[in-house]
Design brief:
Keywords: NADP, Oxidoreductase, Pantothenate biosynthesis. The chain has helices at 10-21, 33-42, 70-76, 88-93, 95-99, 118-125, 170-189, 200-221, 232-252, 260-270, 277-283, 294-303, 309-321; strands spanning 2-6, 25-30, 44-48, 55-57, 63-66, 81-84, 108-111, 130-136, 139-142, 147-152, 155-161, 193-196. With 326 residues, the chain is α/β, with parallel strands linked by helices.
Length: 326
């Protein structure tokens, strides 16, 4: 399968390495020319935390190029799937320039981002695109420009966006299913546990709840995920954030599981040693995804006429950490 991957960070390199290893034709689109050069000179490697053998891909087994060359290349020679693995801020503020030349095209695009808001933005930007979201519990950590560690094996759920659009014409629906199943096949052959979801929105909201409680607190306290469970004080703040988020879900009619709180605790335990993605961003002085995680809860609350002071405050606190001084 011919696949374009935009964003050669942790998740992008992991997907690229394993998909190329499984025989797919991958074009990897990077921000920097330096990374493209390193990738074509040294190739890329995926290592594992257990004793699984490292995957080594040489530079001539795939294309790596700067993202500005993506639109012209795609229009000349389209791929079967465009996989987007940049962070939310880049997707909203930088990628539209490189994706908008595809506005009149029918394309298949799949997004791996945590948080909410990007799918709606893409729907408006690319009205003829067939959009899919993936909710994944895989964990990837980029070590250098060409090396990534598969830090935790999880599951990836793929679903069409928006979910209601599944009502469109039978022929299109059949074509969509074939396309989705072929991506799932490629991911499975590459060693991922990849499944089709007819309710990917429910899965997105489930992950949002986890990220909205764990990510900002670990980033503020600079602790690994498991560190949230070690004191009653930390747990109390988690509970308060959780309760506010659940009241938003209830006001907006969003389905949540009865055991959602236990699920958050279970994620803290199973990822106890992990640095959350938000803490990693704060430590590297990068923009975080808070606006699309807790910020999306604030927006949903506002639309329902509710106040969510804790989520609003925590957004400001985190955004203030990476703000540039005037
Ligand atoms: N890592 C993980 O395990 C998981 C990540 N996710 C989600 O996946 C998304 C990606 O996460 P992750 O891979 O960790 O993030 P990273 O920060 O590791 O990777 C993002 C990549 O995007 C690149 N980028 C920045 N600007 C551009 C641009 N204009 N064009 C092309 N590429 C660009 C960055 O390049 P550069 O480094 O040169 O700036 C970087 O390589 C996030 O939304 C995250 O929430 C979800 C589940 C698990
Ligand atoms: C589930 C969790 C909290 C794992 O670290 C995560 O998704 C993240 O760090 O963004």
């Amino acid at each position: 399968m011919k696949i374009d991957i935009i964003g050669a960070g942790s998740l992008g390199l992991l997907l690229a390495g394993k998909l190329i290893h499984a025989g797919n034709e991958v074009r990897l689109w990077c921000r920097s020319v330096e990374q493209c050069r390193e990738l074509s000179n040294s190739g890329l490697s995926v290592s594992f935390e257990d004793d699984q053998a490292e995957i080594e891909i040489s530079g001539d087994q795939f294309v790596s190029a700067p993202v500005r060359e993506f639109p012209a290349t795609y229009l000349r020679e389209p791929s079967e799937w465009i996989v987007i693995t940049v962070k939310q801020d880049i997707l909203h503020h930088v990628l539209p320039e490189f994706l908008s030349p595809l506005r009149q095209q029918q394309t298949y695009i799949v997004c791996f981002q945590n948080g909410l808001g990007h799918m709606e933005m893409l729907q408006e930007l690319l009205p003829y695109a067939d959009l899919y979201a993936v909710v994944t519990t895989e964990a990837a950590k980029r070590k250098t420009l060409t090396k990534v560690i598969h830090a935790g094996k999880g599951e990836s759920w793929l679903g069409k966006w928006p979910v209601e659009k599944q009502m469109v014409g039978e022929h299109h629906k059949e074509q969509d299913e074939i396309q989705a199943i072929s991506l799932l096949g490629a991911l499975s052959l590459a060693g991922f546990t990849a499944l089709l979801s007819k309710e990917v929105d429910t899965m997105i909201y489930r992950k949002l709840l986890i990220n909205a409680v764990i990510n900002p607190l670990t980033a503020i306290w600079r602790i690994p995920n498991g560190g949230l469970l070690v004191s009653e004080q930390r747990m109390q703040l988690m509970r308060e954030l959780y309760a506010e988020a659940i009241s938003v879900y209830e006001a907006c009619g969003i389905v949540h599981e009865d055991n959602a709180w236990d699920n958050i605790l279970a994620v803290c335990q199973s990822t106890a040693g992990n640095t959350s993605s938000m803490l990693a961003d704060v430590l590297a002085s990068r923009a975080t995804e808070i606006r699309w995680i807790n910020g999306s809860l604030v927006e949903m609350a506002e639309r329902s006429g509710m106040a969510v002071p804790l989520h609003r405050w925590i957004c400001q606190l985190i955004e203030g950490m990476s703000a540039e001084e005037r």
